Amino acid sequence: MTAKPEVVEVEGWFGSDSDGAYLVGSRCTACGSYFFPKQTFACRNPRCGSTELDEVPLSRRGRVWSSTTNHFAPPPPYPAREPFEPYTVVAVELPAERMVVLGHLVRDADPAALRIGDEVEVVIEPFYESGDATHTVWKWRPVP
Amino acid sequence: MSRSERERDVAVIGVGMHPYGKWGRSFVEYGVVAARAALADAGITLDDVQFIAGGDTMRNGYQGYVAGATFAQALGWTGVPVSSAYGACASGAMAIQAARAQILAGFCDVALVVGADTAPQGFFGPAPGERWNDPDWLRFRVLGATNPTYFGLYARRRMELHGATLDDFAAVKVKNSRHGAQNPNARYRKEFTLEEISASPVVADPLRLVDICATSDGAAAVVLSSRDYARSRDVDAPVRVIGVSTVTPTYPNTYVDMPDIGTDSAAAVDPPALSYRDSIAAAAYEEAGAGPDDVSFAEVYDLSTALELDWYENIGLCGPGEAEKLLREGDTTLGGRVPVNPSGGLACFGEAIPAQAIAQLCEVTWQLRGTAGARQVENARVGLAINQGLFGHGSCIIATR
């Protein structure tokens, strides 16, 4: 069986280069505030208000703020696997951006071992399978 | 503490509720029952009401979006102006604030505030349809980040930072279930034991099913009036609302709030001195001219047992990291120094979103009148009710008598 083609679940939210995966955010050219998901039309810093924002890769590594594992299938539109598999959501503090970004924990990591302050890095992993494609999403992987 | 009346006080002359449950009927019916109970409690009729404020009921169609008019029609059109407010779980506070503003501006003397919900089974989900630019839709689609997911994040953080234990969370449940056991409006009137709680399945680690509030059908209503009107009706020492806060966050809010996938960034601007939840209470205290030491009891939004502990700190009952001590020493239990959730809280009610802040004011009013029966707080002088709605909606009400 040949592997299904990979498609990104959300266009323009993450990418990868020779250094690995990264999240795509935006940065205000006037005040330097970051946004994820991207803010495209106006900076949300109330003392700034600039309309010039650049698309930028965010820090690839951050520190765990908290995490939780879901043991029940969420309602639609979550594309739950059948049978349902518990999944862990990790909140990660990015150092340069001074913001917290959520994401799933990679499937082969042990959620019980995660502690606040642990270093994690962003990777791209399969999220779910549809009829003709493997949908990918960003996830957090513990840095050994 | 006794407080003399002030210019910006409004009187609570009537309160009423429709019992919480899973009744499966229209939210409009529940709202009418609660509104009529509040009018009867105030000893007035619909003809005396000059303004009707509704908390919007989403997921229930057009009637829900125009809640003020919906309740006005169902009670019987009398021609009065209406308002409809949506602020998720804080919708009721926005409706109360709208009514209060009408009274304080002199547009009316008597206003009826109503909130009611018919809730779905299980997890709350986003509105149907595919919306790739709606953060509330995206968090479910891309992360499966249900509301309990956020509660789980807070709970684990609290355990690691402040040493909260599963036993502490269970103790909150035991306390609230005991408080609510004799509340006729509560949906769950059963006292939980530690054994039953530990047998409950984990939903969002570390939180179990019984740690997380259910979604309920129910309604609450209050009749607010000017102080002059209350005097003219010979209402003896009415309960007075002395502070209302409906604040939004201050940029940058770097705390993970529903439905965020990413928080604000503090790269360019340092976070404000007060966290968002702290600021919700602070604004109400400031307007009331009161502080945490003045509070005799509090109704806090226990979406989860763990979150109740966060609120102790947010409303200043204790310092950061001290909530477990307060709980363990029995301070927040009926009979303790400052009982929290004497009504039984969401643990016993579940949430009927637009009714919540109004239901909190009903309980605060019964407590301040001294008519709360078996769950009465001794010497209840000042009550504080706080909650927070999805997407940056604060809700805090302080009342006294």
Task: Please tag this protein with its features.
heterodimer, A: 144 residues, mainly beta, 5-stranded mixed barrel, 4-stranded antiparallel β-sheet, 10 strands, 47% strand, globular, B: 401 residues, alpha/beta, Peroxisomal Thiolase, Chain A, domain 1, 2 domains, 9-stranded mixed β-sheet, two-stranded antiparallel ribbon, 11 strands, 17% strand
Describe the structure in your own words.
Chain A has one domain. The mean pLDDT of chain A is 95. Chain A is built from no helices and ten strands. Chain A is globular. With 144 residues, chain A is mainly beta. In chain A, the strands form two sheets. A five-stranded mixed barrel of chain A has the order 6-7-8-10-9. In chain A, strands 2, 3, 4 and 5 form a four-stranded antiparallel beta sheet that branches. With 401 residues, chain B is an alpha/beta fold. Chain B folds into two domains: 134 residues, Peroxisomal Thiolase, Chain A, domain 1 (3-Layer(aba) Sandwich); 212 residues, Peroxisomal Thiolase, Chain A, domain 1 (3-Layer(aba) Sandwich). In chain B, the strands form two sheets. Chain B has a nine-stranded mixed beta sheet, sandwiched between helices. A two-stranded antiparallel sheet of chain B has the order 5-6. In chain B, a hairpin with a 2-residue loop joins β5 and β6. In chain B, α1 packs across α3, α4 packs across α14 and α7 crosses α11. The termini of chain B are close together. The model of chain B has no long low-confidence stretch (mean pLDDT 96). The chains are: A mainly beta (144), B alpha/beta (401). Chains A and B meet through β4, β6, β7 and β8 of A and α5, α6 and β5 of B.
